[in-house]
TrEMBL record:
Gene Ontology CC entries for this record: mitochondrial inner membrane
Note accompanying the cofactor annotation: Binds 1 FMN per subunit.
Intracellular or extracellular location(s): Mitochondrion inner membrane
InterPro entries noted in UniProt: Aldolase_TIM, DHO_dehydrogenase, Dihydroorotate_DH_2, Dihydroorotate_DH_cat, Dihydroorotate_DH_CS
Reactions it catalyzes: (S)-dihydroorotate + a quinone = orotate + a quinol
UniProt-listed PROSITE patterns: DHODEHASE_1, DHODEHASE_2
Entry's EC annotation: 1.3.5.2
Protein name (Swiss-Prot/TrEMBL): Dihydroorotate dehydrogenase (quinone), mitochondrial
CDD domains in the cross-refs: DHOD_2_like
A Pfam short name: DHO_dh
Any one Gene Ontology BP term: 'de novo' pyrimidine nucleobase biosynthetic process
Amino acid sequence: MAARAATSAAKWAREFLFRKVSSNPLGAIRNCSSGPGASSAPKVPHFSKKGRIFTGATIGMAIAGGAYVSTTDEATFCGWLFSATKVVNPLFALLDAEFAHKLAVTAASRGWVPREKRPDPQILGLEVWGRKFSNPIGLAAGFDKNAEATEGLLGLGFGFVEVGSVTPVPQEGNPKPRIFRLPQEGAIINRCGFNSEGIVVVAKRLGAQHGKRMLAETSATSSSPNEEVKPGGKSGPGILGVNLGKNKTSEDAAADYVQGVHNLSQYADYLVINVSSPNTAGLRMLQGRKQLKDLVKKVQAARDEMQWGDEGPPPLLVKIAPDLSRGELEDIAAVALALRLDGLIISNTTVSRPDPVSNNPVAKETGGLSGKPLFPLSTNMLREMYTLTRGKIPLIGCGGVSSGEDAYKKIRAGATLVQLYTGFAYGGPALIPQIKEELVSCLERDGFKSIQEAIGADHR
């Protein structure tokens, strides 16, 4: 094992050094040079001071890891790797926010992130929609918009990962800059506007991942007929959600979502209709009672008319905004119950600027606010929706989660599952095992033997 780790570290360091950042505004990474006809050896590119610091810290971590692994067991080394990311993650704050995001996705897609080898505690496992989740902690849509890194992200230990939002036709989104950090408040303002590579590209990636998963299951079954395949979804060792969006210039929103269903649902463990982003003009109007009812009926019909196997079609959820009135929440709950919607995600980002964000000069930027300041607003709304739906519909709590205690509060308020994004952006990979460990402590402290027992506990 030590030899494999050392070889892997050396290979990773060599590949990292001989790559450079292109002039592409998205910060894509490309090979420095060389090829079959190259006449000279590739040169190590010149890095900026920030780049040299980042490179040195990363290579140092890899070398230290190679030495450390020879003296410890796999589980302990896995824990060390996650802890070691605390050294590298702050360096991302030195980079432009969108470039740092692109770099993080690239790292996950190439396997340059830790892989969780330790099994989740049984107390965290639960079954929702007939799918087995090893833990209730998921990554929200918006991080991996184009399904580039699902395997790496699931490998970090998330119970589920949601990709998207995916639009039918590729679109650039809103002009840059469009992502703004508020580090003191643990928040981010973004106005990306559904930047997406489109359905065709995403379908191709998800199809390849789905095929890989099927091959792995077939190989495992043939080599060990009596060995149970690890629980997972259509694209790997965890559950995969696909979040669908509409194009900015589209005049028929329902047609856009239907197109998404027809092209992507076969690769999804669940689907999400995103009608709540504040960065696409007119999108939130689809949350009205009549508009939402008509939209959901059309999307459900498109899904149900497709051919499905024994497991049936993927569950359909709707993601809603945190800025709705009580009357609007009642309308959404009524539609969800009447149409037997499979779930709701509560919530998207907010256009409000609650304290202490309101005092920050960055607060004047338009866009949706996410992170810690969103937690009270989204959690109160989650609690209301649980009451309105009488606990009959699974809810995913999203907004401001950055600790196990936060996740636990969402679950007690009525969340069956919990998502984070901004907390992960600031905390990095080390935050995931930390949240799960803290969540176990919360459950045991209050005498719960499973996640299921804690769901909606505040209402009893």
